[in-house]
Amino acid sequence: MPLEEYSRKRKFSATPEPAPSVPAEPAERAPVFCVQRHDASRLHYDLRLEVNGVLVSWAVPKGPSMDPSRKALAVHVEDHPLEYGTFEGSIPEGNYGSGSVMLWDYGTYEVLDGTDPKRQIERGDFKFALHGHKLQGAFAIVRMKPRPGTRTKQEEWLLIKKPDEHAIKGWDVEAFNHSVATQRTQEEIAAGDLPPALDELPGVKKATMPHHLEPMLATLGDAPPAGAGWLYEVKWDGVRALCYIDKGKLQIESRNGNRCEEQYPELAALVAAVDAKQAILDGEIAVLDENGISHFALIQHRIHVKGSSVPTVAAAFPARIFLFDLLYLDGYDLRDVPLVQRKQQLSRIVREEESVRLSASFESTGEKMLEAARTLGLEGIVAKRETSRYEDGRRSRAWLKLKIVSTQELVIAGFTKGEREYFGALVLGVYDEGKLRHAGQVGTGFDQRMMKQIHTRLEPLVTRECPLTPKPKLKDVTWVRPELVCEVKFHEWTGDGVLRAPVFVGLREDKSPKEAVRERPTPPAEQNGGQGDEQHTASASASSSSADVKPGVAARPIPGATLAASQLSGKEAVFEVDSHPLKFTNLDKVFYPAERYTKRDVISFYDRVSPWLLPHLRARPLSLKRYPNGIHAEYFFQKDTPDYYPAWIVREPILEHTRSEPGGGGRASKTNHYVLANDRATLLYLANLGCIDQNPWMSRVGSLEHPDWVLIDLDPVECEFAQIVEAAQLVRHILERFHLRAYPKTTGGDGMHIYIPLDPVYTYEQARTFAELVASLAVQEAPDLFTTPRSVVKRKKNRVYFDWMQIATGKTVSAPYVLRAYDGAPVATPLDWPEVAPGLDPKQFHIRNAIERFEAVGDLFAPVLSGGQRLEEAIQHVKLG
């Protein structure tokens, strides 16, 4: 229907509806849609879809639905101009369609079957996906055949929601009766009540944008609050996030203040989705299952990943952010503005997209909300007082979380032995009245891979001291320092403070141990409950003093670390590490001249990296390479350590043959006392000696003649690193034919190491022979890529040197996670195979950013230590010759 009919029905001097304008040239953007709630002679909804420069429109008497079982009647009406897509107001009496019009929903849409939308409408079957504030997912609008005896010229259609992850059974259109543009009700629109301007909001303050805020926290409730004046939201099971938008740049901070926007690249859409130059928004990052339900176990896949692995994992586990609060907007601090008006402003400036959503608020009863959440399988709901101010960094009774499935953050205090590998159960603790109390054990909810990851994280934290007060009576427990937090779901607390039927959910990297406070339900809040200072007092009394430690005030404790760079001030410092006194000297000495990194920086790095590094050094003899005056000064090697080393440092005596004695009388033998870096104190002692990188044997004490892996060392011979990447992937594919797992890492220099973990039953010669076999296969497949001569002068240039001769008793290799003595302070970094791709640069991992990566991805090299591979079985998979 042409716009002439739209214009014929209206007198634009008497109605605020927009007159048609000259159609603009088609824009290279997604087409828009809107739904308007029109209270005319009869209340109905109007669905409008942009097609060829106009809004093709249908009147939907009972409104659209997100429930696939409900088919809504839709009557095809005249086309409307694009300007109508943002119209909201009242059409005066005497005009066509007089009554109030609410902009109920708007957004973009996409055509689903690839056919031109006009042709789909002409054939009577139009399929599309909506990306709105309220309507999401796949829909179809289908023309019905005229009913016998009807004379109407208007076509009747059916609007149908397709089953997908956005579908919601029992969805009620009238539960969403606020404008998406102004948050006004239909009555407020009819009365002409306009939303206040930003500077007119109660409690608003003119202010510069804060650089850092802390999230407001909800108190656990045991029942919905009584009375009116409460809004209800879904309790998303993800990671809390404060989002800072400043002149086109985005910064996202997790609950403990850590930057995380690079972990979630899809959330970069926030900048374009938010109509503001400066804004601070509060929300929850979540990953949804196929039913649209968030689960913390799903976002676990994203929390530990950074770097080049992010796109791959993001494709498998896409994240969304659900925004529920606005704290700052374009020069105004909104924290003292009542919640309902903050939400109105939030809805006004946010345009929802696939990864950016508004967390809907419901003016329902708490009981109905809980029942709906229980039906949908949600974790719970959050009740928020409409008039509440934003109490950043505090836990308030103005916000109540009501859980359907009880969950609790707990500190891992130890692990028990069991019939399974790694551990039987985790011993849990929770802070209560300022002390870490025993909360029971959890032995279910994790698979073998998760158990291995947890065990790897716990090994560096092992201690003789029980961290719980009082010490529980448990057998076969290995205690650990209380530094890892996990989340557990459970049935209830027993009378003696132990969890009943706990199930492990996941590690909580975003929370510090002091935040693991026992949550006790707060009685239902009274309708006239206090605000302001009384609210703060109630909040403080609801949790122990240890719970009031604000996340982000101090740096999050690093697993296993006891020192901070700021503590290593001055030229010298003395600390007790692992009960051993250590004196650090010449801390100002520059070790990396180009970047001015000092000995202090090196010691601090090894203190922080020790949880990941120590498992790969333990029980392995070290050949010390010492740089007493930095990387560009003279260095020396040291195998035999002198007697004046502290007695607590473990040294392993190894009898070694050196060289022919003068006169050809055979080979001399010498016992060298190798250092074993079994603990953090030893590691830091060596760093103080100027050991910039650590070089362990490939075998351990007790099986020194049997290496734990086959080492493949790929080095450039005047070639680009891209060829190293190509060579590594070729080696990987060869090893896959042997059905062997292999793990790559940068050397920190210009090469790459590939470790093939073995059961320690083979000699070095056997391991070396297998490496030589792999080298020969690689050369056969890519003769122009590899070179293998041991002699440097015989190696061909512009090739990758496949070094298999390094595998020998007493030979050492730079360990994963160590610094290297090259400009830029690069770090030998384990990689995920998808990261071994064009564009990889080993210099991208260095002293300033490596720790953040390791905290995110964990120990990618942990499987190297588990062995579990036999060469004779591998060779059977490949037919040679």
What does this structure look like?
By secondary structure, this protein is α+β, with helices and mostly antiparallel strands. It folds into five domains: 3-191, no CATH class; 198-403, 2-Layer Sandwich (D-amino Acid Aminotransferase, Chain A, domain 1), CATH 3.30.470.30; 406-519, OB fold (Dihydrolipoamide Acetyltransferase, E2P) (Beta Barrel), CATH 2.40.50.140; 565-688, no CATH class; 709-875, DNA primase, PRIM domain (Alpha-Beta Complex). It is built from 16 helices and 42 strands. The strands form ten sheets. Strands 1-2-3-4-9-8-7-6 form an eight-stranded antiparallel barrel. Strands 10, 13, 14, 15, 16, 17 and 18 form a seven-stranded mixed β-sheet that branches. Strands 21, 22, 23, 24, 25 and 28 form a six-stranded antiparallel β-sheet that branches. A hairpin with a 3-residue loop joins β1 (32-39) and β2 (43-51).
